[in-house]
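TASK: fixed-backbone design
INPUT:
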């Protein structure tokens, strides 16, 4: 699995979704990554470095046990540009140990071919108590 390449501090490496025949995988609301922090944080901004312009992403609180479900709260979102996209996030009541980067629409990479690649995902905010 190459998911760790999205947050390895090396923009020359990337994590990519599978290749799909439509912008949203069939039977799914999206695809994404859960990223854990070494200590709880209150996020202020998420930065995504990507060449997948047009991909739509949401930043969500990560539900316990991983994966999206009704308890996940969307705290930010954006359409990615080529290069770095800065996504401000809404303040959360409690510091988070994990965050979900959820791709709701993949970028077109050719006729009937959709994929999103994330070169680097970075965060800024305050350490929790």
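OUTPUT:
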């Amino acid at each position: 699995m190459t998911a760790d390449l999205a947050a390895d501090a090396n923009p020359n490496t990337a994590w990519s979704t599978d290749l799909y025949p439509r912008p949203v995988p069939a039977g799914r609301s999206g695809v994404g990554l859960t990223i854990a922090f070494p200590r709880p944080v209150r996020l202020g901004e998420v930065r995504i470095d990507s060449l997948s312009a047009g991909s739509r992403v949401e930043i969500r609180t990560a539900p316990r046990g991983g994966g999206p479900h009704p308890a996940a709260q969307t705290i930010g979102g954006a359409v990615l540009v080529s290069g770095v996209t800065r996504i401000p996030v809404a303040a959360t009541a409690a510091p988070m140990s994990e965050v979900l980067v959820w791709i709701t629409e993949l970028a077109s990479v050719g006729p009937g071919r959709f994929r999103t690649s994330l070169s680097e995902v970075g965060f800024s905010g305050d350490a929790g108590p």
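COMMENT: The beta strands are 15-16, 31-50, 56-61, 74-79, 83-88, 96-105, 107-110, 113-115, 117-118, 120-127.
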